[in-house]
Design brief:
114 residues; alpha+beta; two-stranded antiparallel ribbon; 5 helices; 2 strands; 47% helix; 20% strand; elongated
């Protein structure tokens, strides 16, 4: 069972990713509003969650293992905490406890010709 401090550190790294807009961390939440401001009709938003158990897939595609060091480089996180996050990631992988979930938002709208 992960310690509370490990969970807090992981949450801090994920917050950094979203707040720094790495890999489109927050724009997806604004897509529906962006469609509305462009006078599109029949706009829709669908959420699809991807659950990944293979750490290589997440690390190779999204660079998850590097997020904490990126946060440290930008002054958001202490370098020792970044190292601790990587060690935590590696321990979870070694123990077969790694799970990552990400939700994608699919937005659409129709431009009506007047």
């Amino acid at each position: 069972m992960p310690r509370r401090a490990d969970q807090d550190l992981a949450a801090q790294v994920l917050r950094f990713r979203a707040e720094a807009n790495l890999r489109n961390g927050t724009p997806a939440h604004r897509h529906a509003g962006m469609l509305a401001t462009r006078a599109l009709e029949d706009s829709a938003v669908e959420a699809r969650t991807l659950v990944v158990r293979d750490p290589r897939a997440v690390d190779n595609v999204m660079g998850l293992r590097s997020w904490a060091h990126t946060a440290a480089t930008r002054g958001y996180l202490d370098a020792a905490d970044a190292d601790r996050f990587v060690a935590q990631f590696d321990r979870a992988v070694s123990a077969g406890r790694f799970t990552y979930a990400v939700t994608f938002f699919i937005t659409s709208g129709v431009r009506v010709a007047h």
